[in-house]
Amino acid sequence: MTLIGPSLMCADMGVLKETVIRLDQAGVDFFHLDVMDGNFVPNFTMGPDLIKSIRPYTNKPFDVHLMVKNPENHLDTFIEAGANMISVHAEATEHLQRTLQTIRNKGLKAGVALNPSTPIEELKYVIDTVDYITVMTVNPGFAGQKFIPLMYQKVKDLKQLFDKEGYKIDIQVDGNIGYETIPGVIENGANMLVCGTSSLFKSDISFEEAVSQLKKFIKNQKSAQLEINLK
After folding, report:
1. Which residues pair with 193 in a beta bridge?
2. CATH number, position 32
3. Domain ranges, residue 52
4. Beta pairing class for 170-174 and 132-136
5. Hey, is 161 helix, strand or coil?
6. How far, in Å, CA of 33 to CA of 48, rounded?
């Protein structure tokens, strides 16, 4: 099953509550919340108070993507704010395994985010402590960047690794995930799509229409892929 998660960094912060409610009712599967500290990446975004303020308006999982240095120091803060899933960057902590295990011990799903240039070998000795991988298909920090084509291969390599080792680990893709790039990431093994301005946050159609169109598109892509596999 392919899951859709709006990137709330792309939302209008002035009507964030209403946006969350509408996207929830439209049928998204989770909400992706980017937290940036202006240090690990050159930008600042959502803090725990903002996340806490919208938590009452949906029961869908909150996927908190910590683009911060030393994320282990902030886990409790974001868990208390309402996170259900937390991903941390491999380069951001000296103790990746311990950080992931701490997230799991708190009852959340633990993820590793990989920058475009981060090799998948970083996962070799934490693979048994990971629930999902966030493949950054653009360099983290800003919305509206172009998809990096080599990331199709990275998704494929991850899928092959997990299948070979016998792990059921979700592969999330984040960055310019739209109608041009979705077929390729799904074909190569991604099953969680972080959707922003390329697919959900569009000025010419409503959230309801955007979610409906995206779901139909994904269904058609998977059907076409299945037919190819059966030939």
Report:
1. 4, 173
2. 3.20.20.70
3. 3-230
4. parallel
5. helix
6. 10
Q: Are 48 and 21 in contact (CB under 8 A)?
A: no
Query: Residue 189 in contact with residue 158, Cβ under 8 Å?
Result: yes
Q: Which residue has the tokens 């590793």?
A: 112
Whether residue 153 contacts residue 191, with contact meaning beta carbons closer than 8 Å, is answered with no
Q: Which two tokens stand for residue 170?
A: 């979700």
Structure tokens at 175: 């960055």
Tokens of 162: 């997990």
Active site residue ranges: 34, 174
For residues 172 and 195, what is the distance between their CA atoms, to the nearest angstrom?
11
Distance CA 54, CA 88 (A): 22
Q: CA 221, CA 224: separation in Å to the nearest integer? A: 5
Number of domains composing the chain: 1
0.85 cut: is pTM over it? yes
Pair 45, 7: CB distance under 8 Å:
no
User: By C-alpha distance, which of 138, 89, 78, 95 is closest to 111?
Assistant: 89
Per-residue pLDDT of the chain (231 residues; tens, 9 = 90+): 999 999 999 999 999 999 999 999 999 999 999 998 766 666 777 889 999 999 999 999 999 999 999 999 999 999 999 999 999 999 899 999 999 999 999 999 999 999 999 999 999 999 999 999 999 999 876 666 789 999 999 999 999 999 999 999 999 999 999 999 999 999 999 999 999 998 999 989 999 999 999 999 999 987 877 767 766
Question: What tokens appear for 101 in the block?
Answer: 């295990």
What residue type is 150 in one-letter code?
L
φ/ψ (deg, to 5) at 19: -65, -45
